[in-house]
Amino acid sequence: MRRLKLVVIGNGMGSVRFLETLVAGGEHGYGITVLGDEPDPGYNRIMLSPLLAGEIPFSETVLRSRQWYEENEITLHTGSDFRVVSIDRLQRLVVTAAGESFSYDHLVLATGSHAYIPDIPGSSFEGVVPFRRYGDVEAMLSAAESGKAVRRAVVIGGGLLGLEAANALNSRGMQVTLVHSQSVLLNRQLDAYAGQLLQDELESRGIAFLKPKRTACIEGCDGRASGVGFSDGSSIDAELVVFAIGIRPNTLLAAESGLACEHGIMVDDRMLTSDPSISAIGECIQHGNETFGLVEPVYLQAVTLARRLQGELQPFVSRPSATKLKVSGVQLFSSGQFQGEGRDEVITLKYSDAGIYRRLVIRDNRVVGVLLYGDTSDGAWYQELLESDQDISEYRNTLLFGSQFAAVA
User: Fold this and answer.
1) Domain range enclosing 234
2) Looking at the 3D structure of the chain, how many domains does it have?
3) CATH number at residue 200
4) Helix (H, G, I), strand (E, B) or coil at 77
5) pTM for the model
6) What is the per-residue pLDDT across 130-151, written as a single tens digit (0 to 9) for each?
7) Rounded distance between C-alpha atoms, residue 294 and residue 321, angstroms
8) What does 84-124 look like in DSSP terms, one character per residue?
9) DSSP letter string over 301-317?
């Protein structure tokens, strides 16, 4: 019996989890070809921050070796020549940058996302980099090891990636300033109190902060960055400028082929696009009104798709995902609607001397938001309460103290 041709565009974390799930289920009936535009097999992007900090080698980020693909009869093509430039949906063909064509019976788009760099003067200068791929890490390491007496870096963006990049570059010996457009760091995950605890910790390590500040231009000469200018007329010197102000789903390939796209590639609960022979997963998709930037929902999408191709129907349901900061020595956990709204009850616990803070948001005797700083040991328990929509009335009075106290309440 002829195996159906399954082509996967993209070899990131979602793609690899999809492949792992598909082959783990035994005979699946597909001849699989994977096309990735980076030179190496898929790697763990979550580990780019410790890689930049020098805590691990690149080899520890690789998810599956080339041998694994061979052993599972998966044909893997990597490198810029295998970047897919067009999809012919009528002929069911994909065409690469080198002009090679691959036919498919079913196509999976796992094209991921790209770092957003605003179109401002100087944004294309040498020394201006995003923080998204291994190549970006190499560029930053080159700047950090340039041998200059003063090596100054400006990181633009006070979200997860920005903070992780700033901390890693600081650990590499660079003089780092982080610029954020909001007054609170991680403003989508932290309130003002927790944000200040985090800033105090990072300042103690030598990182400087400018906020709220809006970047107006990248200053430089002869095509190379020398500083950052702000909307208030001030500026700061820098040889390296790192943008970490968000990501955008990679939808161009899908849109040019005529697939339905809004902010991302539109998919249904089965991960099917508007073409029944094409599925999509990961940061490139939009499910309902939601796009995705955390790994947990991406993994769930990958499993949903793999099992569907194996004949099982397991609809994808989006769930709250917890945020964790990958900065050594900093414990942070944030999930759900931590700010609260309307008649929600917000309860907090502060141990200022120990740098410990807890904030829970309660609605109708259910946990709907969690924020932990300094001690995240109960994070998984709170997350379970949040996801299960469990009534917490029985241990409401001890809830803030964690699972151990609730168990004996």
Assistant:
1) 128-243
2) 3
3) 3.50.50.60
4) strand
5) 0.90
6) 999 999 999 898 887 766 655 8
7) 7
8) EEEEETTTTEEEETTS-EEE-SEEEE---EEE-----TTTT
9) HHHHHHHHHTT------
